[in-house]
Design goal:
Order of helices and strands: HHHHHHHHH
Number of strands: 0
Shape: elongated
Number of domains: 2
Strand content: under 5%
Helix content: 55-70%
């Protein structure tokens, strides 16, 4: 009898730590893992429950906590940030087979606000950036960022030669176009 109790305790510990392990191991990007973990910690701080305790409360109570957290965020956070704060929490729930009504939560998201003063670079501004580029790498980054609209955070991932595909333009072609 005593042996079974130890086994049940071990199973409980394994289940809860496994839930955290599933969450962490299912995230491929280091950057995403950092963000998701941070957002989950922020929710833990708000709810005063750690991730193991979140796994052991009822789905109804967790749903209510998330709705209350969303209301709290609407009064204390930029509305454009709120959906991303829920991605890590949602991923945690999915990986632990916690079925919540995410449609209700999504319907409660505030309307996004247009960020002021954001605009594309003008051709003249891009030319100035290219003129001041110290090397081909910097000029390539200017072209990439200006033409795709991506944020600088995209370069948190280490790029290597294997990531590059054969380019149509050679360095000489770029120089002849006076872009570098």
């Amino acid at each position: 009898m005593h042996k079974n109790r130890n086994c049940a305790t071990k199973l409980y510990v394994d289940f809860t730590s496994r839930g955290i392990l599933l969450f962490e191991e299912s995230i491929k990007s280091k950057y995403t893992k950092k963000n998701y973990s941070q957002h989950l910690k922020e929710f833990e701080k708000y709810s005063k429950l750690n991730s193991i305790e979140l796994l052991n409360i009822s789905q109804e109570y967790l749903q209510q906590l998330l709705e209350d957290y969303l209301i709290h965020l609407k009064h204390n956070t930029n509305p454009n940030s709120i959906p991303s704060k829920f991605q890590g929490i949602r991923h945690f729930c999915i990986m632990n087979k916690i079925n919540l009504n995410w449609d209700i939560i999504h319907k409660m998201f505030p309307q996004k606000q247009k960020t002021q003063n954001l605009r594309a670079y003008t051709t003249e501004e891009i030319k100035k950036l290219l003129h001041n580029a110290k090397n081909l790498r910097d000029a390539t980054l200017v072209h990439f960022l200006a033409s795709t609209g991506t944020r600088i955070g995209i370069f948190d991932h280490k790029l290597t030669i294997k990531h590059l595909k054969k380019c149509q333009m050679t360095v000489m072609q770029l120089k002849s176009m006076q872009v570098i």
